[in-house]
Amino acid sequence: MRASNVTVRRRLFAALVVGTILFFALVVRLAYVQLWAGPELSDKAEESWRRDIRVTAKRGEILDRNGMRLAYNISTPTVLAIPAQIKDPKETAAKLAAVLEMSEESVYKLITKHEKSVYINPAGRKMTMEKAEEVRNLFLPGIRVTEDNKRYYPFGGLAAHVLGFTGIDNQGLTGIELKYDKNLTGINGSISYLATANGKTMPGSNDEYKPPLDGMNLQLTIDGHIQSIMERELDQAMVKYQPKHVIAIAMDPNNGEILAMGSRPGYEPGNYRDYPVENYNRNLPIWMTYEPGSTFKIITLAAALEEKKVNLNESFYDDGAIEVSGARLRCWKRGGHGSETFLGVVENSCNPGFVVMGQRLGKDTLFDYIYKFGFGKKTGIDLGGEENGIMFKPSRVGPVELATTSFGQGVSVTPIQQIAAVSAAVNGGNLFKPHVARAWYKPDSGELVETVQPELVRRVISEATSKQVRETLESVVANGTGRNAFIDGYRVGGKTGTAQKVINGRYSADEHIVSFIGFAPADDPKVVVYAAVDDPQGIQFGGLIAAPLVKNIMEDTLRYMKVPQRKDQLDRKYNYGDTKIVEVPNLIGMTLTDIYEDMNMNFQLAKSGAGKNVINQVPKPGTRVEQGSTIRIYLSDAAPPPETDSKP
């Protein structure tokens, strides 16, 4: 019995010890939970109760150089599901699918996700106001219609390949939208609250609002007016010549700013899915590579003048071809140009003459200048998808390759390389990096954040050589193959190009890329314009197709930019059938008899009023118009006004 009591007491003591230990362990555990882990556990609990509703930040606007909005945001409804608040997922999925025209299965998968909130993609994103009202009228628990932002391009397809477009989440996918996506994209905000497991708001819950931070606004170098001029001409060229493609670029040669850039076929960024993929995934002015043809001769000319390997007054004889290492390289003109100066070689775009320039320079020197002008590598323009172009490897350049390169055959370039290089040739010799971004601004205050500075890559030729190049190319437009780019009142310089396309490794006999690059005024260039037409139907010469295209773009651009006209312009050489530009005479104060006796047949007359004296006329005296234009004279028997200097 005594042994039994001892055993019991021992057991009770052991139980007491164990209980005491457990009690102290529990106390320690509670102390740990309360004092140490409490804040963390409290945060985790709150996190499990907290629900967040995203507040989308506005994407930064894109403006042209004058502040005109080219891309901005508009408010648009979007359906948001909060899975924890949905009472009957199957019924909700059925009703929502019927309105959004989605499958019930896809909607059900979205609204039953273990997430705080879910967008109903794709039909529930960025809907019409009418569709959003239908969703609201369903009164479905856990389904909300929130405000979202949609990218809007107010001018349709204007500058589409420069701007690019965004995806469903306003993320940049192409063009400027992609290149500067990080700066244009803002930081989303949120509205958060505490909710129970069934989704009801917890008593005493205070909503927390974190405002979104909108993206910065980007101003481009693009001028919307010049861009519209260019695209008007591109559209007309597509209709008139039915080419595969047509492209154009306008650039300020003094700083590398792109004033306009476009191509056809085009597309509308807001509806890019409605167009073939090749319309929007290739920015042809920076992506397309091809043999430049005679526009490349400007580089050979600049190098030869800089190295003093040619005198423009030196005589040259072109019999239609030149022999180089057994290869017979022909001039475009059958039978050749005969006796001419090297200035005539440039005016006539004479291939044999440029071969001689290349031979005098030699392989190493010519290719050194080609690389210095930026060919063979990307210009670095701030747009995605730029190509390098293709140059001969120096080790593989023999006499024939040297000869063909000198007149633009056998090499491959991009339009952006062409315009950057020619700009360097005519702006005083400075190669600038092309760019389309101009400045960044804060979205709320409009305060300037950063200005994009011109980036000088290198000096390629001297100012003196550049002046010679300008004067020579002005003569090409006045007297040579570029005459169709002549603009009366402005000194225009430029060069034509006609290159056979390479198809399946062979030169095509009937497919060409015709091009022209021009600049004005020739004494102080303010704009350089390049255009190329891929496989135009009919006659395929750059001087007949691309030169008038550039002329039309440049003429309206110069007037829009208010560039003063020049008085020391070279006179244009007229061929048989050309319409001359003549000056309107002063007819005010003359009688009809005087006019018919003294006036030559350069003009047609239209009369208004009655009487014998001319008291006014349109166009005004001194205006330059095409020969054969009509002058309207206003007649009266009153004495004519006193004579004044009526020339502008």
From TrEMBL:
Entry's PROSITE patterns? Answer: PASTA (PS51178)
- Asked if Transmembrane helix is a keyword of the record, the answer is yes
Pfam families, alphabetized: PASTA, PBP_dimer, Transpeptidase
UniProt subcellular location: Membrane
Predominant subcellular localization, coarse grouping: membrane
Q: Which residues cross the membrane?
A: 12-32
Q: Which InterPro entries match?
A: Beta-lactam/transpept (IPR050515), PASTA_dom (IPR005543), PBP_dimer (IPR005311), PCN-bd_Tpept (IPR001460), SpoVD_pbp (IPR011927)
Q: What is the designated name of this protein? A: Stage V sporulation protein D
Q: What keywords appear on the UniProt entry?
A: Membrane, Transmembrane, Transmembrane helix
Q: Which family does it belong to?
A: Belongs to the transpeptidase family.
Q: Does this UniProt record's set of keywords contain Signal?
A: no
PANTHER family recorded = PEPTIDOGLYCAN D,D-TRANSPEPTIDASE (PTHR30627), PEPTIDOGLYCAN D,D-TRANSPEPTIDASE FTSI (PTHR30627:SF1)
Residues in PASTA domain copies: 578-637
